[in-house]
Amino acid sequence: xxxxxLMAKGQIVTHFAEQFEIPKKVAxxxxxxxxxxxxxxxxxxxxxxxxxxxxxxxxxxxARTGRNPAxxxxxxxxxxxxxxxxxxxxxxxxxxxSKK
Length: 100
Prior knowledge:
It is a single chain. The protein is α+β, with helices and mostly antiparallel strands and about 100 residues long. The protein contains 3 helices and 5 strands; from the N terminus they run ααβββββα. The strands form 2 sheets. The chain has a 3-stranded antiparallel β-sheet. The chain has a two-stranded antiparallel sheet with strand order 3-4. A hairpin with a 3-residue loop joins β1 and β2. α1 crosses α2. The chain is elongated. The protein starts with 8 loop residues before the first helix and ends in a 5-residue tail after the last helix. About 0% of the residues are buried.
């Protein structure tokens, strides 16, 4: 199955520039600032709501024991902090409708 190409940043900038009738440079600066704000707020407060899309959250994972898939040997996996994006219900339902 051939994978479809994702939109590049330049294509997104062009879309917003045409949609809102603004220069591409302004559209690019909006996208860059939005991304910077999302990163800063997630780092500082542990979560950031992406309206209509979802929420980025910091999750602290505990240390645990795992298995090396090649040898089956038990290995220690250290504790770490990861970032997760939790999709909003409306976003998820628009892409993958529930089977009710």
